[in-house]
Amino acid sequence: MSLPESHAGIPTITPQQLQEKIESGEAIDLIDVRTKSEYKGLHAAPAQVVPLDDLTPYAVDQVRTTPKDRPLFLICRSGVRSEKGCMKLLRAGYPNVVSVAGGTLAWEQAGLPIVRGTRQILPLDRQVQLAAGSMNLAGVLLGWFSNPNWYLLSGFIGLGLIFAGSTGICPLGWVIAKMPWNQARVDSASCCSR
To answer: Closest by alpha carbon to 10, among 92, 101, 77, 93?
Structure first.
């Protein structure tokens, strides 16, 4: 079966199509590339976690159960990070990777099996928005009430957002993903299935 491609040329599959493969008895490997705490809060039931920053062929091989010639499916929150993960693995010479279109949001909206944790964490993109907005506001307030040089902080944040938007690389997102609250240990005993 030929799979549709994303705008980046990465093969994609819908959550429903992937679930049909699972229900037909086909063995699949589904890797969630979000942070461990995001994964712990909510994930597709068959997914295993390998965060995007740690995603290498070696890391994938440690959790993979199917042969390398079989497709490897990547999922994230909405499909953006899974596409980046696919590109990262393709560049590393890892063949046959497929992004789940719409990510975990689409998986949950389709009513497919999920595992929901007891502790919810904000998705990484919202953490970045909160941090950038807070620093920008702090720069404006400090510039107004303290010293005009603080306006440079707001300018720096603006340049960072322009860089992230134009390259797809977000240094602030990388830093926030490394924070302790995003490094939660994954323990299946603390999660319950819906």
So the answer is: 101
* Local structure of 116: helix, strand or coil: strand
My answer on whether 30 and 68 are in the same domain is yes
Token readout for 6 is: 């994303």
| 187 contacts: CB under 8 Å, gap ≥ 6 | 40
List active site positions.
76
Residue (of 192, 172, 193) closest to 182 by Cα position: 172
Residue 98 buriedness (CB in 10 A; 0-12 / 13-18 / 19+): buried
- CA 55 – CA 49 distance, rounded (Å): 10
pLDDT tens, 69-104? 899 999 999 999 999 999 999 999 888 999 999 999
The range of the structural domain enclosing residue 35 comes to 12-121
Q: Give a yes or no: residue 187 inside a domain.
A: no
Cα 45 to Cα 23: distance, rounded to the nearest angstrom: 13
- Quickly list H helices, the chain: 15-23, 36-41, 57-63, 80-91, 103-109, 124-145, 151-167, 171-177
